[in-house]
Amino acid sequence: MNTVMTSENLTSGDIVINGSVGTPFCDDAKMSMRNVNVFYAENQAIHDVSLDLAKNQVTALIGPSGCGKSTFLRCINRMNDLIPQCKVTGSFVMDGAELYAKNMDPVLLRARVGMVFQKPNPFPKSIYENVAYGPKIHGLATSKSELDEIVETSLQKAGLFNEVKDRLDKPGTGLSGGQQQRLCIARTIAVSPEVILMDEPASALDPIATAVIEELISELKEKYTIAIVTHSMQQAARVSQKTAYFHLGKLVEMGDTKQIFTNPSHQLTENYISGRFG
Amino acid sequence: MTTTHLAFAVIIIALFSYWLGIKRAITVAGGEQHTRQLVSLPSQYGLLTAFWCGLPAILFLLIWSAIEASIVDSLLIQQVMLTLDTTAQQNMSLLVNNIKILAEKVQLNEDVSAATALQLQHAAYYTELNTKATWLKTLLTLVIAVGCVAVLLTKIKQSFHARNNLEKIVSGLLFTCSGIALLTTIGIVMSVLFESIAFFSKVPVTEFLFGTQWSPQIAMRADQVGGSGAFGAIPLFVGTILISTIAMCLAIPVGLMIAIYLSQYASPRLRSVAKPMLEILAGVPTVVYGFFAALTVAPLIRDFGILVDLPIVAESALAAGLVMGVMIIPFVSSLSEDALTAVPAALKEGSIGMGATHSETIRKVLFPAAIPGIVGAILLAVSRAIGETMIVVMAAGLAANLTFNPIESVTTVTVQIVSLLKGDQEFDSAKTLAAFALGLMLFITTLALNIAALKIVRKYREQYD
Ligand SMILES: Nc1ncnc2c1ncn2[C@@H]1O[C@H](COP(=O)(O)OP(=O)(O)OP(=O)(O)O)[C@@H](O)[C@H]1O
Ligand SMILES: [Mg+2]
């Protein structure tokens, strides 16, 4: 099958998206998003999406390119505030607090909801400084030794410490792509966030580096709540417990990963995961 | 025909041969409808013919004009030698000159009764030589132009690659142009170098580089005073450094803040207004800055000095430095802004995503990442400041005081070069030659700064590629 994916053939036929099917909500939600709409100027990128991120679980966001996965993810830690023409409506609640409330400081929020980007983006500083960056700006360490410890444990959690312990003072940009991405993960967990958002964290990596990252994600979910955008069905199936399928800015189906991949309820989901689109 | 007339004639022939070339190409192809059989377009044949006609003829004209005068002169001298005894030959150049003037007078029907018969004879010979030369020039040029066209027209066949030949000619022309620029640069450097060497044969290098006395006036007559002729350039170097430092102290912080504001905070609307404004600031002629400094800023500073009971001289280093600082703000800000915007957006997002504020992100991530570019910008600005002339000529003094005090009057290398060469000068006196030595120092310094800046800028470019 090599159908070219356009908006026409995705909505064509009798398939309609009428609200979302499956189980987008759960009892032990870390974050609850309700009736989210996102506009880029006049252009609506997200249409009335409601879902929960379950505590200490990995939620995978999948869907064809341009369906709004990144947009939705970036709303969760208010990265879209950086885009002037972007307008967000709806409610985002984390532990009972509304993220878009007037008294919510987006800077503090981003320390609680960390983000790992598609392309590794270490700062042009030493490996040590990269990891120490967050703790320093948030004043998490009162002494040098405390900072050292944070850096070491973060690197250890990211599975990078043994590889770089002899060259912590060397530039982070000198690492391999996979190491750089793990450095970025270490950098993110160094500020002890509660939620980690990952936007295609392994798309620039080779299979071995990808496997390392996936293993890391599985370990991290013990302590953190994770949302991950991915284009790889296998990856979503391997690392996530919940999967949300987006289509043209709408949430089509969400539920347990096992159930989504073995027995999807919606025709579009089935088309997508069986490789008929994208 | 004069050379200008001839050049025009050649151009007209060239235009005509453009048409000829096209005609010929069409004929060779066998008519308008068959031009596709040619390997090149008809107009390319035309252009090639025109170039072939014009270029050799013009080249010949140029060479001829360059050597004509000296050939005519040497022929004239030969003739004069035959008719004069050796004693009169001492002043040959004067003689030849007189003959030329006489020839001109004869042509203009002026009074030549004072001239001897022999002189008149020589003048007539000179006129004759010139006429012959002009005829020869005209003839040869036209023959070359027409001849080249004829040769080329016979060459045009269906398989003649006019396109490729044209390409070669164009690249040759471009090469010549860049060669001219290069040669000019080398020429300037050489002349400055040789004059400097001449200067250093009169004044020792060590005295020039390490002497602390600058007073280039040399007594021309015994009764003049004050002309000791000391060429210690240290006060000038210090003055230059002082004024440039003041300028940079203003330009670096202000320029960087402008760069940060424009690249990070300003709305697109504001940026679209502010950037052209800054570019206008860079485009203001320096002489305008000069009288702004001399007439507005300097008195202001002096009045302020009176207010706080500080004796500030009218031509203080401070005034010149501050205005120069304003002048180079755009250099710092525009290049630094480029460096800041060149930092990948991913780094900024990474930092913001970590919970850093905007200003923390700028200070800790964007700025360090852009540092090489910013250093390059600053070095370029410094070399601008050191080489700047007009502002300091108008606003700084001429007194070569050895001081680091910004409220006193100092002078700079460029100001001294101007004042050394101002007015009528003997061209081989130490005073005049000193200007070249100063120029050489300036050239070496700015060149070194520019090379360093370019190296750094290039290095940072590679960083993100
Ligand atoms: N900065 C922006 N300005 C305007 N429109 C944008 C912007 N970013 C995204 N969009 C639009 O929003 C829609 C969703 O984009 P988004 O990046 O969220 O898709 P995605 O699902 O992440 O796609 P991909 O899998 O290719 O990364 C697209 O139609 C896109 O054109
Ligand atoms: Mg995306």
UniProtKB/TrEMBL annotation, chain A:
GO molecular function, one term: ATP hydrolysis activity
Alphabetical keyword list: ATP-binding, Nucleotide-binding, Phosphate transport, Transport
ABC transporter domain location: 31-273
Annotated CDD domains: ABC_PstB_phosphate_transporter (cd03260)
GO biological process assignments: phosphate ion transmembrane transport
Keyword Secreted among record annotations: no
Keyword hit for Phosphoprotein: no
Pfam families, alphabetized: ABC_tran
GO cellular component, one term: membrane
UniProt protein name: Phosphate ABC transporter ATP-binding protein PstB
Species assigned in the record: Opacimonas viscosa
Automatic annotation (TrEMBL), chain B:
Coiled coil: none
Organism superkingdom: Bacteria
An MF annotation (GO) of this entry: phosphate transmembrane transporter activity
Keyword Zinc among record annotations: no
Bilayer topology annotation: Multi-pass membrane protein
Keyword annotations from UniProtKB, A to Z: Cell inner membrane, Cell membrane, Membrane, Phosphate transport, Transmembrane, Transmembrane helix, Transport
Pfam families hit by this protein: BPD_transp_1, DUF3708
Domain ABC transmembrane type-1: 237-453
GO cellular component: plasma membrane
InterPro entries assigned to the protein according to its UniProt record, in alphabetical order: MetI-like (IPR000515), MetI-like_sf (IPR035906), Phosphate_PstC (IPR011864), PstC_N (IPR022182)
Transmembrane segments: 6-26, 47-67, 135-153, 173-194, 236-260, 280-301, 313-332, 365-386, 433-454
Location in the cell: Cell inner membrane; Cell membrane
GO biological process: phosphate ion transport
PANTHER family: PHOSPHATE TRANSPORT SYSTEM PERMEASE, PHOSPHATE TRANSPORT SYSTEM PERMEASE PROTEIN
Function: Part of the binding-protein-dependent transport system for phosphate; probably responsible for the translocation of the substrate across the membrane.
Family of this protein: Belongs to the binding-protein-dependent transport system permease family. CysTW subfamily.
Protein name: Phosphate transport system permease protein
Protein species of origin: Opacimonas viscosa
